[in-house]
Structure prediction request, 284 residues.
Amino acid sequence: MRNVSGSFWAPVVYLLLGVLSIQASASLAKSLFGVLSPQGVTALRLGFAALILLAVFRPWRRRLPLGALRPVLAYGMALGCMNLSFYMSIARIPLGIAVAIEFTGPLAVAAFTSRSRRELLWVGLAVAGVAPLLPLGAFSADLDPVGVGFGFCAGFFWALYMIFGKKAGMVRGTNSVALGTAVAAMIALPVGLLCEGTALFSPAVLPSGLLVGIFSSALPYGLEMLAMTRLSTQTYGVLTSLEPAMAALSGFVFLGETLTLVQWGALACVMGASLGATLTGRRE
Prediction:
């Protein structure tokens, strides 16, 4: 029998589970903003995630070659800045809209790395799905421009996360996610401490911070690293177009956010693009 872990579908499943975990836990993180600042929640998220991933993968057992240091550091810096920007964004604008804006990053990577018209077709369909979710027209009056700006910043760092994450994964495999998350935590923790002080370590928030760390970072980043090294960059980029749909569903279930028929139609386009990328990516 063929080993499932070596097939094309295994990394697809890893990536989709990671997307589901991130978006479901984003609602939990947003609910903590009444107690901690977005910077404080980010620090807890990445701090706990780094501890868990370092304990699981124990990357110190293998010597880090000098040539691997640069992509791991770049990956970790992109990861830390992406998380800080995203939480600063969802503190000001709805979750689904923030994710849609953030998605401009990986969508740009998918567009720039496409090698054929067939691949551009799926990118175009994803664009058609994401466009109605962006802060345009009637939506713009209700959105905080600072939150929108942080959303685009998160998208920029998400694109860098994809690029450097793939390079780091090729050099260090799954160990790179532990090292990268540790670098990201070293960026986020000083910012969180500056904003919260000792309140960051209050027993009232630590359990929730641990859950956010597990389901927002430790679990999905490990799954994404497994997927990143086995999928092409453009297939990974378009598959993550499910992020806005998952975010909208999470917002509806946990935060009571509803969507119009037009927006649901837009999400259908996004999911269609993801399916197309999956089916055609199998031939790569």
Residues 122 and 273 are 5 Å apart (CA to CA). DSSP finds twelve helices and no strands in the chain.
